[in-house]
Structure prediction request, 304 residues.
Amino acid sequence: MLRIFTLLLILLSVPVLTAPGHAEESATILAIQSLRAKPYNAAFEGFAALLGSQVQTRRMILSELPEDIVAERIDMTGPDLVLAIGTDALSRVKNRTDVPVVYVMVLDSAAAFSGQGHITGVNMIVKPEKQLAIILDALPGSQRIGLVYDPEQSGRIAAEIRAAAARKGVELRARPVFRAENVSSAVMVMKSEIDVFWMLPDLTVVTPDTVNFLILWTMESGRPIVTFADKYAKQGALMSIGVDPYGMGRQAGKMAEKILAGTDPGAIPCEDAEKADIAINMKVSEKLGISVDEKIAKQARIIE
Prediction:
């Protein structure tokens, strides 16, 4: 009996270990979602699927609750981590330095939060180098690429594209603008200098007026447009390279795992989305007389 009792004491004294890279079972996550929209739901589902039953994940939808409820809900829940889904959700929690925050479905916040040690997340843009590789594979004859950007809005993305283009030996015509009114003239100047125009997710560059101009321009010039959202491909761009919300959610889940396992959020760099969602407008392809490489076409959603 004494031997059995001694063995039991030894077993009880051994700490319970979780699998490497996985969060502790006792952890609680509060997911704050801007609104109940399909992409946001998919991001949450990807996040929850990655973490599985390791943690308790509770979700609140901001658009369905009183405006002043966020701080109260965080205080009541006492979460180990907050997942902010969407820009509105992130704006409500970014100043809560008492809890780690992982964001997803936010355009490009890497620069904005680079100095804040409690925030990290996944930007709503596919890694620029990966996008460039897709463009070159899809349109192998396009070695001259043009883009217009506002340095304050998308300077970081433009710099990464410039570096990636240099590595691949691609000619890049990148023109900075600071007002939407200057977009059309910047594009017209580079008309004879480029094979394809790359539309970045830039709030200065992409407005209803500039999109209308670009759609007319692509038909008149015969130069295809590659954009970041399929809604613009539906309007007249040749191809879109967008994000996969579910994949972004899983990517954010990996960050959360590291934080819950003890990694400082400030030591986890903000990332761009790894997985791309490609769409091709076949009518535009026919009108421009441009064929997209079969390998990329097989990966893409087809817009008729």
Remarks:
- The first strand starts at residue 28 and ends at 33.
- DSSP finds twelve helices and 13 strands in the chain.
- Residues 128-243+277-303 form a domain with the Rossmann fold fold (CATH 3.40.50.2300).
